[in-house]
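Form 12-C: Joint structure prediction
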Amino acid sequence: NAGVTQTPKFQVLKTGQSMTLQCAQDMNHEYMSWYRQDPGMGLRLIHYSVGAGITDQGEVPNGYNVSRSTTEDFPLRLLSAAPSQTSVYFCASSYSSKAGGGLPLHFGNGTRLTVT
Amino acid sequence: AQRVTQPEKLLSVFKGAPVELKCNYSYSGSPELFWYVQYSRQRLQLLLRHISRESIKGFTADLNKGETSFHLKKPFAQEEDSAMYYCALSASPGAGSYQLTFGKGTKLSVIP
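Section 2 - Result
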C-alpha cells in the first residue's frame, strides 16, 4: 500500500518555466489537497478537491492550477514559476469529503521546489 | 474565518521534563482540532484528534472551548519526541467547509 505518492522529490526551475507536480493516492480517497510549507508560515492550503471533477481554491491559489480527472490523481500545475513559489509542497488526502470538516489527512513525502 | 495560533516557534526541554505545546484557535462554530507531527525527514502524520480523546505516544490534548485552546501535553519528554508539531482546525462535519487550517508550527527539541 503506497499511500500518497508525490513526484518529483526535488525540482529546480527558472523563473517563467512551467511544471506539474504529481500526486497519486491508492486509498480511494475522495478528498485531496495541496499545501505549501514555508519557514515561519506553517502549511497553507493552495487548492483542494472533494471528488473527481470538483476542485476549489484554498488560501493561496494564485499562480497554481489543479484538475481532478480521476479519483487517484491530483496534479498541481505552476503556469509561470516565480521565486516566491520556492517552497516545499505537500499533497494530502482523506477518505471522505461528504461529511465535510477536516477528516484525518494522509500526507505525501513532499516536493522541494526551488525557483531561481 | 478560522485561525490557529501556536505562540512558540521553538520549545526546548530536557529529557524527562513535562512538555506543553500551546495552541489557540479562533472559530465561530464548533471546531474539530488536530495535532500533526513531522519527524526529521518524514512526512507529516496525524498525532491525535480531540474527538478521539485518546493518548498517542504519551501525548494528550484537551479541547477547552472557554479558553479556545487545544494544548498538547506529555508528562515526561523523550528524545524521540523531537519534531515539528502543527495544530490544525477544521469546521465540524456537515458544516460544508473542507479546509483544514494549520498553525505555523512549534519545533520541539528534547535535550538529552
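Section 3 - Comments
The two ends of chain B are 41 Å apart (CA to CA). Chain B has a mean pLDDT of 90.
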